[in-house]
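Every protein is a chain of amino acids, and every chain bends into a shape of its own. The fold becomes a row of whole numbers, each drawn from a learned catalogue of backbone shapes. The protein below has been through that process, and both of its lines are reproduced in full.
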Amino acid sequence: LVRIPVLSITSTMGTLIRNVIASASINLVTNSSVVIANTFNVLCATKSGDPERTVVVGAHLDGVPEGPGINDDGSGSATVLEMAIQVHKTGMPLTNRILFAWWGSEEIGLLGSRYFVAQLNGTRHNDMQVALNLNFDMLASPNYARQVYNGTTVVLPGARYGSEKIHKMFTDHFDSRGLAWELTPMTGGSDYVPFIEAGFPAGGLATGAGGIKSVAQVVKFGGTANTPYDPCYHLYCDLLTNIGQDILDQNARAASTIIQDLAGRGDLEEFLRPPQYETETN
């Protein structure tokens, strides 16, 4: 249980205060309680593919009390579900197993993904050995920036090398389709965190949350400057009308392409493993 009381305001409100009413004083009032509740993950593994090289594909299933959570993270959860459906429908040949995961309680501390990683026996989940994690969180912000998780920002060297390889797969995909992209740091805030902390390579896509879109980003991606990527981030208006359909389609296609590639690689371990350097001794 968290024993230190914490109060906060949203990023959007903080930015407004900083930029517009910086001299204002703020009074925060809260009516809080500590409640012990059960949460859960939903896991679905393919029957085919080598379980010794399992690709974990995840998105978080929960939202915040303030809103329906259609973009955050219904967009990611629905994308993962559709990929699972298509793998089953098409009988896609798989060299490596895929574990589709819908994480619980991401919004209150990545609880579902942290539990999954904590319960691993070394790198194993039941009969499966985890090779990497792909994370899809907010794929359809209406004022989007097309963001790829930056593997070079991963701290652990063993996880960094594979994460860099994954991020290059996504950027190469977008380059091949003439779609602009930018890198976003893997420094916290979504369900890839427990994996990279445990030394697993990870990667994925996002489109921005409550941060403010710059003029340079508008030149690159279109949209409206000086407004949030998702104006309904963690708000009541995060409805179906809050979905950017074109960017959702582009991201879903990118995710599907990269997952097929990784799940089809017979050299997955070698692909993700950092090169070993021999030291000459005299």
